[in-house]
Write a structure and sequence with these properties.
globular, 3 helices, single chain, Ubiquitin-like (UB roll), five-stranded mixed β-sheet
């Protein structure tokens, strides 16, 4: 069962899609290789958060998504 990678907000615009499926297991390097280059360039930024299986990761490079997990790429939130 693959890992679902969800692109939210402006990251979906950059990706040109709301989600992709990639083979499990998925680590940080695999994620960077799997997403479009425009998204991969933004992922290391501190303002972009990463959630795996419903939990926001404190350390993105510790990503270890398994079969059926959902990885959400959370863009910076703007407010006013």
């Amino acid at each position: 069962m693959p890992v679902r990678v969800l692109f939210l907000g402006q990251l979906a615009d950059l990706a040109g899609t709301g989600e992709i499926s990639v083979p499990a297991p998925l680590d940080w390097d695999g994620l960077l290789r799997s997403v479009p280059a425009a998204v991969a360039e933004r992922l290391p930024a501190e303002t972009v958060k990463l959630a795996c299986a419903g939990q926001v990761l404190a350390d993105k490079i510790s990503l270890c998504a398994m079969d059926g997990d959902e990885v959400a790429l959370l863009p910076p939130v703007s407010g006013g």
